[in-house]
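Section: Multi-chain targets

For targets with more than one molecule, the full set of components is provided together so that the structure can be written out for the assembly as a whole rather than chain by chain. Components appear in the order listed by the source. The example entry contains two components.
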Amino acid sequence: MASIVDITMAKKFVQLLVFNLTLTEIVLSGNVLIWPTDGSHWLNIKVILEELTQRNHSVTVLTSSTTLFISSSPDLLVDFEEIPVSVNKSYLESLIEHMIIMWMDHKPTPLTLWAFYKELGKLLEAFFLINVQLCDRVINNLTLMARLQRGGFDVLVADPVTLCSELLALKLGIPFVYTLRFSPASTVERHCGKIPAPVSYVPAALSELTDRMTFGERVKNIFSYFLQDYIFHSHWREWDSYYSKTLGRPTTLCETMSKAEIWLIRTYWDFEFPRPYLPNFEFVGGLHCKPAKPLPPEMEEFVQSSGEDGVVVFSLGSMVKNLTEEKANLIASAFAQIPQKVLWRYKGKEPATIGPNTRLFDWIPQNDLLGHPKTKAFITHGGTNGIYEAIYHGVPMVGVPLFGDQYDNVAHMKAKGAAVEVNMYTMTSADLLGALRAVINDPSYKENAMRLSRIHRDQPMKPLDRAVFWVEFVMRHKGANHLRVAAHDLSWFQYHSLDVIGFLLACVITAMLLVTKCCLFSYHKFIKTGKSIKRD
Amino acid sequence: MASIVDITMAKKFVQLLVFNLTLTEIVLSGNVLIWPTDGSHWLNIKVILEELTQRNHSVTVLTSSTTLFISSSPDLLVDFEEIPVSVNKSYLESLIEHMIIMWMDHKPTPLTLWAFYKELGKLLEAFFLINVQLCDRVINNLTLMARLQRGGFDVLVADPVTLCSELLALKLGIPFVYTLRFSPASTVERHCGKIPAPVSYVPAALSELTDRMTFGERVKNIFSYFLQDYIFHSHWREWDSYYSKTLGRPTTLCETMSKAEIWLIRTYWDFEFPRPYLPNFEFVGGLHCKPAKPLPPEMEEFVQSSGEDGVVVFSLGSMVKNLTEEKANLIASAFAQIPQKVLWRYKGKEPATIGPNTRLFDWIPQNDLLGHPKTKAFITHGGTNGIYEAIYHGVPMVGVPLFGDQYDNVAHMKAKGAAVEVNMYTMTSADLLGALRAVINDPSYKENAMRLSRIHRDQPMKPLDRAVFWVEFVMRHKGANHLRVAAHDLSWFQYHSLDVIGFLLACVITAMLLVTKCCLFSYHKFIKTGKSIKRD
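Its structure, encoded as tokens over all components, is:
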């Protein structure tokens, strides 16, 4: 394995040659270490690191040898440092498939979350072990650590869904920046980032609630926060001891996470309900969005053949490959009844009921299709990346959420009037047809999707530029301490002013006791004395 | 008085001729109505409206006929609509002078604020009457209102220290944007804008506390919030009935203020302690800051004559013109003992103790002096505008606060390590000399001032551009509803989840009662029955 320092130096000269950059620009560039999370998370962080390389920074990605999406490619001017782990790819895939199936069978609600959590226990334990192994093999590998030290990194950019980046940054003595979609019930953001979340109008992530809740929903919301906080805290316990051991002093995972300089949250007010936040939180949702490119000729021809009716795009994302035959037929027969042409990303067997207006594709250029003027609707599983592409292009949605945060994502789009939800497991052909006809024919869905698109596009600065600005800010200033709230230095009872309230209550009670005592004394002194005088 | 519509149309054509703009640009421009507040507030809003005219918008300023600072000028391409009020300028000046003298004699602390407020009662009443008169003569002047309606305004930009802009915007059916430095204890921002302010680390405005408080200071902070909230609420009562009467339905001042689309706060994290805020709050402090221009030749010569020692700039702002002879002598004798040259903005009699290194000026180009490389320190009364110029240019300060928010402003700069405070009323020559020597000779003050300067200058977007962006956003989209938190639609007990907490407590108590009852029942049923069986 080549030394990171060598690679970094070599890269700088390659950049000098390839981009014809001046020496000043080279000198001004920095070194960025990336600690990514696999899956769709990688797609998002990849956009940031591509922009960082465009801006002449040297980027090194630290990742396990077993990944699903994270990989080098010739167009990516990035160094990969692979950490060998004893888990093979097929085992990882089976674990994830297991998780998806479990989720699809037992969709967790705030009330069933506990049972769901227990059932997922083994799986979470496996993930924990993989993460610990990765962490061990970085932190305890003295040769690697020495090489990273020599790499002269200015900042570590991490997706905190994979833990340990904080330890690495502290060990290397460099600041770190988080890029994060959410943690369940915002537990990490609230407890470690100190972002306030009034339970009366900030719905817990995954709760599928909106910012306008009935009394019953607000009760549900409080339970949702309680339960998810409890789960997190019990999960954290294992990491607390690991972090304390590694740092050689008593600490907690949360305390270490709280040292993040900037939190780049992958949503914005087009998707998110407006809520309080802090100066070191930046909402950069949809930073991967970009204008559509022309479609492949054959696909363009198919799309154009739809005439005035336009097309519908259907994708369940990269995780779900096949459906049962029954489900596929049900969907295909609904599609056969609409005048639009349908582009369906599907790797399974062609359904028997497929209409002449529907075409199956192994892969679709989703962003280019959503940006096509003929596209009337997007049927989506509700992943954040896909939803953001639909928002960017102003396309109304039919949400068929399957697992994870997809239910919550679709709930957001429903609340904003840009989507209709269909239950994938109970739906009939008529349900899907009804939903599709609604979003295509009722102009309010298109109007709302276009409103979200305008909100997304009309920002003071593009989300990607803001994200990269703050990464570079941390590099330039070795942190962003001026944005860090003093709440981090308060205990929980100080934060909630319980000591002050207790003191004031004690004062009031003491005052009341004194007054009562004085009254009683006066009563005894004067009334009783008066009586005895009278009696005399 | 020429019709606003006529003026607007005429101005567009003048702009077309003067700036050689294309018709498309003219069509894209909008009409902005400004409701300013006098004094230093005007200097700030003026920068925004100058930028708006630069961007081709037609700007109309609505103001009373009696103003101190607000005035038209040939370089200001703005229409002024003057509302005649029955208060003359000299009376207004005497009121303000009275207020300054009162403040200087009885500097209010959280504990003396109540007495101060009572003493200020008459003055506040006078201000209230002036504001009501201005409001009456706008809202009830049907001719003026009809003209304003015809003016086709897209947005109203208001400084809410002068009330009534909200009523005008509602009557005209246009959105409004606030530009505001602060309200005491952030009462308006908290109650009407719904910005959260955890009392444990967000110091009440005017409290002179920082974000890092001892237990005693946190007690003081809570009192500060309570007291200032109470004062505001008692002050609001009069306006509540006025607003209800004008709008013809029961409402409150606060409810009407809560409809502001955007709150442009005139501070940033260089000055402010980091705190939670909301998506429709933008911190645009120092939007008036700009690079220094060359000094007048004579002044430049004096500055250059200071050699390596450099110069000190001293100004007490535009409100305080003279000092007592004793105070002026005390200050001058301190200046005479430093090696720096001193530029003192002072209109009073030349002090007898003045040294050869000190020169008095009726007026100084403050920003250009602060931006001069020879400037070593700035002695300031602590107005926000001056402090921001010092931050921008990285000049350490000696704060001699006099009244209003100046004590609090200087407390911020002290906490950030960029200033030393001297008490104007009790100081000796040695105190001032010591403070001056500290900020000039102890490098930490210069370093901290430079750190604040870097924070101020290294933002994703300049404060003025952000302020104008959001004004234009509101014009383009007829509001910014997507940034408005749902908290506005909750009652205070719903907001604090008191109904949910009450319900959960009731559930717990009911459950406990039921369990106790069951236990008692079981006890009676089984134990007593058992005993009676035994007895049998």
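Chain B touches chain A through 50 residues (CB under 8 Å).
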